[in-house]
Design goal:
The chain is built from 11 helices and 12 strands. It folds into 2 domains: 1-107 and 262-356, Isopropylmalate Dehydrogenase, CATH 3.40.718; 119-260, Isopropylmalate Dehydrogenase, CATH 3.40.718. The longest helix has 19 residues, at 14-32. The protein is an alpha/beta fold. It has helices at 14-32, 45-51, 57-65, 88-98, 168-183, 199-212, 225-234, 246-260, 298-310, 315-330, 344-355, and strands spanning 2-10, 35-40, 68-73, 103-109, 129-135, 147-150, 158-161, 188-193, 219-224, 241-244, 269-271, 277-279. A hairpin with a 7-residue loop joins strand 6 and strand 7. The relative contact order is 0.17.
Length: 356
């Protein structure tokens, strides 16, 4: 098959790990007789430095014309001033919205050989294999901000307002996707909300209940976000698919990284109504590691596997990449975040060798 893939290295360690993801995709293309055409574009802080905007029009146009997008990371202290009018993260949010990507998939699986890397007891990690489905284009991150305003009277001060907004349609499409994915897994959906406090969560729960009626073979349960956070650290293996709104999903997925032992291991896929998606590791730009060649590329390589599966329809090739990662871990190969000494390129080369 032929496919156009945009590479967005971004900031910090982003370009380093994306290079390893590309190498894996190149190897898959050669082995399967596919033709992948790669285009590199700027985003985030690098784009701000080059042209003053976090998402140049040319980058967005290229992504809209592509079959898939592989992203490294955005952000860093160089652009982190609270007074900054343009921030790298704005580019990522604008890209998700510009591509109509409303669902973020984050699989969390604990590899048996890496239980010692997690701060949790091994018995709490046995059998953990869950999938987060996070709503991506609504909620607090996209609500209408009133910004800052002075408090008149009562001693003065400053008030800030952010709004949490959802429509039933926005909720329905991401919840239905969660049910569709659960139907191919262990047929359990946990819908996470704060319905005892928030009206938006009460609407979320109503829509989830209605959607469940379309999937009689899948079990639905409701969980408040605070108790879900505790359950992730005590009984994570009891989860199958977790679906939740934007802010809750952002927090819970980073917490769940502790289960796997390192942020560097976890991939993600951002999807919309069509096959085109945005794929990225969930770790940040890690500016303290940039240029040292020590970043873990496995999250990006596993994101490339998700790209093969969800956007290109190459499930067998995706399985092969994931098996190569499993074999490398079983063989004891580790980057520094997992207590090893391999460089970014060495770990990437190890995956290529096992993929071959």
């Amino acid at each position: 098959m032929k496919a156009a893939i945009v590479l967005l290295g971004g900031d910090g360690i982003g370009p380093e790990v994306v290079a390893e993801g590309r190498a894996v995709l190149d190897a898959v293309a050669r082995a399967g007789g596919h033709e992948f055409r790669f285009v590199e574009k700027p985003i985030g802080g690098a784009a701000i430095d080059a042209g003053g905007t976090a998402l140049p029009d040319d980058t967005l146009d290229a992504c809209r014309a592509a079959d898939a997008v592989l992203l490294g990371a955005v952000g860093g202290p160089s652009w982190d001033s609270p007074s900054a009018k343009v921030r790298p993260e704005q580019g990522l949010l604008a890209l998700r919205r510009g591509l109509g990507l409303y669902a973020n998939l984050r699989p969390v699986r604990v590899h048996p050989a890496l239980t010692a890397a997690s701060p949790l007891k091994p018995e709490r990690l046995d059998g953990v294999d869950l999938l987060f489905v996070r709503e991506l284009t609504g909620g607090l991150y996209f609500g209408r901000p009133r910004g800052r305003e002075p408090i008149i009277g009562g001693g003065g001060g400053t008030r800030v307002v952010d709004t949490l907004e959802y429509t039933d349609g926005e909720i329905r499409r991401v919840v239905r996707l969660a049910f569709q994915l659960a139907a191919k897994r262990r047929k359990r959906v946990t819908s996470v909300d704060k319905a005892n406090v928030l009206e938006s969560s009460r609407l979320w729960r109503e829509v989830a209940i209605a959607a469940a009626a379309e999937f009689p073979g899948v079990t639905l349960e409701h969980q408040l976000v605070d108790s879900c956070a505790m359950r992730l650290l005590t009984h994570a293996a009891s989860f199958d698919v977790i679906v939740t709104e934007n802010l809750f999903g952002d927090i819970l997925t980073d917490e769940a990284a502790a289960l796997a032992g390192s942020l560097g291991l976890l991939p993600s896929a951002s999807l919309g109504d069509g096959p085109r998606g945005l794929y990225e590791p969930i770790h940040g730009s890690a500016p303290d590691l940039a240029g040292r060649g020590v970043a873990n590329p496995l999250g990006t390589i596993l994101s490339a596997a998700l790209l093969l599966r969800h956007s290109l329809g190459l499930a067998a090739e995706a399985d092969a990449v994931e098996r190569a990662v499993d074999r490398a871990i079983l063989d004891g190969l580790r980057t520094a975040d997992l207590g090893g000494r391999l460089t970014t390129r060495e770990m990437g080369a190890a995956i290529l060798a096992r993929l071959a």
